[in-house]
Amino acid sequence: MEFPAELIRFLKKADRVSVLTGAGASQESGLRTFRDAQSGLWAQYKPQDLASPEAFASDPKLVWDWYAWRREAIKGVRPNPGHYALVEMENRTPSFTLITQNVDGLHRFAGSRNVLELHGNILRVRCADCGTFAEEWGDDTESVPRCGKCNGLLRPDVVWFGEALPRAELESAVVAARQSQVFFSIGTSGVVQPAAALAHAARNNGSVVVEINAEPTPLTPKADFAFHGKSGEILPELVKAVWGI
Ligand code: OAD
């Protein structure tokens, strides 16, 4: 793929780059997207029936089992070349922030260091009552495992429908977007707020906005550069074009 010389120049001299990723960034790792994850025996449920505080309150075992099933699926998944290209980008950029809506932990697995997980991490488990993180629990029980400290029910440390995003992460993400000189929106449909607003915050503060997505999104007309294709292919090519690696 040919990249505009202007974009290559911007990236070479940029001190501050921020990246927002969504489900598309993990697609080439073979991970099912949130909606695909409702296949087979889970197909009869709406997302709100499996990923909301109300669902957990009315049927905690159902919700726990769905996440246990997704955690197992994630264990066999590895980062793809797009994840590794973002590690290279971080290595070559003085101030680099990776903001992700993905809960799969693949950016850290690949080696990214400055990662803000806006929707939490499915591999982490915490008490629904006191918030204490659990390191161990049994998945083969008849009931939802309980907190060793307060006996509350354990739940995945992810953001559910109707829940607020983690405040510190969101604030840091807004700052990183505003301060960036180049902002990437990668593999995200750009319709879920407030993450979608980050690209606009970047743009309103003078950042160059670059989109990489399999298809056009509502952000495309507003982006300075938009590349349509797979992030696992485009990102390594871009890193090679800019830094020769
Ligand atoms: P979506 O599933 O809404 O969008 C995924 C985007 O990735 C789409 O725009 C696809 O075109 C694009 N895509 C697919 N494969 C790609 C590839 N190989 N390379 C590049 N792009 C690709 O996912 P998100 O935008 O992440 O929230 O959704 C945001 C949030 O909505 C999720 O985090 C989840 C959901 O409700 C919570 O769970 C709180």
Describe this structure in words.
This protein folds into two domains: 5-31 and 77-119 and 165-243, TPP-binding domain (Rossmann fold, 3-Layer(aba) Sandwich), CATH 3.40.50; 40-75 and 128-158, SIR2/SIRT2 'Small Domain' (2-Layer Sandwich). The relative contact order is 0.20. It is built from ten helices and nine strands. It has a six-stranded parallel β-sheet with strand order 3-2-1-7-8-9, with helices on both faces. A three-stranded antiparallel β-sheet has the order 5-4-6. The mean pLDDT is 93. α1 crosses α10 (231-243). The protein is elongated. With 245 residues, the protein is α/β, with parallel strands linked by helices. A hairpin with a 5-residue loop joins β4 (120-127) and β5. The longest helix has 16 residues, at 60-75. 2'-O-acetyl adenosine-5-diphosphoribose (OAD) binds at residues 22-24, 27-28, 33-34, 101, 119, 159, 187-189, 192, 212-215, 217, 230-232.
Key structural traits:
binds 2'-O-acetyl adenosine-5-diphosphoribose; three-stranded antiparallel beta sheet; Rossmann fold; 2 domains; 245 residues; 37% helix
Give a brief rundown of this model:
With about 240 residues, the protein is α/β, with parallel strands linked by helices. It is built from ten helices and nine strands. About 35% of the residues lie in helices and about 20% in strands.
